[in-house]
Design goal:
This protein has 240 residues and is of the alpha/beta class. It contains seven helices and 15 strands. The model has no long low-confidence stretch (mean pLDDT 91).
Amino acid sequence: MTNVLAIDVGGTNVKLLVQGKRVPVKIPSGPTMTAARMVAAVTKATAEWDFDAVSIGYPGPVVRGRPAREPHNLGGGWMRADFARALGRPVRMINDAAMQALGSHEGRASGTMLFLGLGTGLGSALVLGDGVVVPMELAHLPYRHGRTYEEYVGAAGLERLGKDKWRKHVCEIVRILAAAMEADQIVLGGGNAKRLAKLRKRQLPAGTRLGDNSNAFRGGFRLWESDRNAHASSSVTPTS
C-alpha cells in the first residue's frame, strides 16, 4: 500500500500531511517562497517521515501534471522544477482547488459536485459521480460591470464590497455556476467559506454545504488510490 505525503501549496502557508498523521505541518510561504525553497523546506520538515509518493496541490492551472504558469502570490521557478527528482519520490500534481474538491466528494450517491474555493481568488473544480475530478478555471470569466467572478468573491472583492454585499454576490454566483454545471451538490471551501456559516439555508441552492480545508489532504491521498484521475494529474517518477 502506497503511503502518501500530501502538500497543499498556499499563498500564506505550505501545509504538509502524511498518511498516518493527524496534525499537518505548516511552513510559512509568501512572495519569497520559490519552488526550490519549498522543496528544501519540505525535505527538512519530513526528514523523519516515511512515505512512498507525493501529491502536490498547486495554486494555479496544472497541465499534464505540471504548472501551466507561475503562481501569483509566490516566488518563481515552479514551471521548470523537477519535483519528483528533488523529492526523490513519484509525484502527482493537481490544481489545489481540484485536490480539495476530490477530498470533499462523498461518493457516487452524491452525484456531480461543484467545488468553489473562496480564498485569495476563486478556485473551482467539478467532481463527477464516479469520483473523477475535472479541474476548472472559472475565476476570470466575466460577471458584472466588466469585472470577473473572482473580482467579486475573492479576497479583494470582500475588502471592496464589505461582508454583507460580498455574501450576496457569493450566493448569486453559486446559483449561476451550480445551474450551469447541473451540479447535484455544491461545496464551498477556502479560507473565507467560514464567513458564510451564518447564512440561512434558503439563501444558497439546495445541496450546498461548507467544506473543510483539511479535505485537501484527503484529496491528495485519493490521487494515488486509482488511475481514474490520470487526466487531472500525472505521475512523474524521479530519475537517477
